[in-house]
Every structure is written in structure tokens, then in C-alpha cells.
Design brief:
Number of strands: 2
InterPro entries: Homeodomain-like_sf, HTH_SB, RNaseH_sf, WH-like_DNA-bd_sf
Strand content: under 5%
GO molecular function: nucleic acid binding
Strand order of the largest sheet: 1-2
CATH architecture of one domain: Orthogonal Bundle
Protein name: Sleeping Beauty transposase HTH domain-containing protein
Oligomer: single chain
Helix content: 40-55%
CATH topology of one domain: Arc Repressor Mutant, subunit A
Organism: Hemibagrus guttatus
Length: about 120
């Protein structure tokens, strides 16, 4: 659609004529032409700021949590995403570790003890 606006503009038509021909608001036509003049393109430009690091699955989970309860705090959302992956190896299930996990209300995934069939999850 943006390229069509530029084609019509280059043929000598004005904002109003382009707006009527394509059924777009005049302000949209003006913005497209302004962007084309300034940047030489009508394609989306790179965004500023840091890229997101959240994976789509976690994003869906957050959306479900917020939809369920819009008053959820960011700390509650963070806690809902956190889970600990354990292999139930005795050195990882010490009493102090288990108590810490319970005290901090950390979710743990059920994992068969020392199973050779399972590879550790790679996060990151």
C-alpha cells in the first residue's frame, strides 16, 4: 500500500487525490510521503532500544496471567515464569537446597532421578 502511495505521488497527484483513490486518511498519505522523502524508503525502519529477550512461550504465559488477573504485579509475573530444572541427583537435592526452594516458593520440574535418557535443558 505504501509503495502505491508513492507511485501515485510521483505521477503528480496530491495528498487529497491519493487519499480518495486509495481510501486512506490524508494524514496517513502525508506521513508515508514524508517518510519516503526523509529516508528514501517506505519500509519499516530499525527500532531503537534493546531487543526483547523473552521467548514466545514465556510471552504467551505472561499474557495468560495478566488476562486472568489484570492486577497482577510484576513480581508475581516474574515468579510465575521462574522454575528450577533439577535432575534429582542427591547432590542437587540436599536438605538446605530443598528448604531454600520451598522458602522462596520456586517451582521445580519433576525429573526422573539420574535418568540417562534426558538431556539438560538449554536456556538462553
Amino acid at each position: 500500500m505504501r509503495k502505491k502511495v508513492i507511485e501515485i505521488y510521483q505521477s503528480g497527484k496530491g495528498y487529497k487525490a491519493i487519499s480518495k483513490a486509495l481510501g486512506l486518511p490524508r494524514t496517513t498519505v502525508r506521513a508515508i510521503i514524508y517518510k519516503w522523502r526523509k529516508h528514501g524508503t517506505v519500509e519499516n525502519l530499525p527500532r531503537s532500544g534493546r531487543l526483547t529477550k523473552i521467548i514466545p512461550r514465556a510471552q504467551r504465559q505472561l499474557l495468560q496471567e495478566v488476562t486472568k488477573d489484570p492486577t497482577t504485579t510484576s513480581k508475581e509475573l516474574q515468579a510465575s515464569l521462574a522454575s528450577v530444572k533439577q535432575d534429582n541427583d542427591p547432590k542437587h537435592t540436599s536438605k538446605s537446597t530443598s528448604e531454600w526452594l520451598k522458602k522462596n516458593k520456586m517451582k521445580t520440574l519433576k525429573w526422573p532421578s539420574q535418568s540417562p535418557d534426558l538431556k539438560t535443558l538449554q536456556c538462553g
